[in-house]
Amino acid sequence: MDYVSALVPPVVMAVFFVAVIRVIVKTQGGAAKAKEDAAVDAALARAESTRQASAGTDA
Prior knowledge:
The protein is mainly alpha-helical. Helices cover 88% and strands 0% of the residues.
């Protein structure tokens, strides 16, 4: 029975790992993808405009 107790933790971790990967893959895309992409684009635009504004005042 020692081999069973030695194999259980890796098997459990492998099952959880596969479950996490499946969740990640399933949540990619879909209806919320456009909204998430728009939020990221807006955040990047704000960061870029802030960087340009601070670079303009330093010169």
